[in-house]
Amino acid sequence: MSNRNFALPALLLALWATGCTPRIEVAAPTQPITINMNVKIEHDIHITLDKEVETLLKSKPGLF
Questions:
Q1: Is the residue at 45 inside a domain?
Q2: What are the C-alpha distances in Å from 46 to residues 49, 52, 53, 56?
Q3: Is the CB of residue 64 less than 8 Å from the CB of residue 57?
Q4: Domain annotation covers residue 29
Q5: Is 63 among the domain residues?
Q6: From CA 60, how far away is CA 44, in angstroms rounded?
Q7: Which InterPro entries would you find in this protein's record (predicted)?
């Protein structure tokens, strides 16, 4: 008799637990992924020369 009293609640609990299980799907998107990269790159190069190097470059223009 105790098996009958235990079987029905166990069956109901099992059905309830499987009904509430979350479902997870992994699917590829239908459209391609687009990445918009509007980047503006600006740079300034500042060169500072010593007086000696500046006079050397002026005296020998074909050095570089």
A1: yes
A2: 10, 18, 16, 19
A3: yes
A4: yes
A5: no
A6: 27
A7: YnbE
Give the residue numbers spanning the domain of 31.
1-57
What does the pLDDT look like over 3-54, one tens digit per residue?
A: 667 788 888 888 777 766 677 888 888 899 899 888 888 888 877 778 888 8
Q: Residue length, the chain?
A: 64
Start-to-end Cα distance in the chain: 104
What ranges make up the beta strands (E) of the chain?
none
Count of domains in the chain?
Answer: 1
Q: Quick check: is 62 in a domain? A: no
pTM: 0.27
Residues 6+ apart with CB under 8 A from 63: 56, 57
Cβ-proximal residues to 28 (8 Å cutoff; 6+ apart), any chain: none
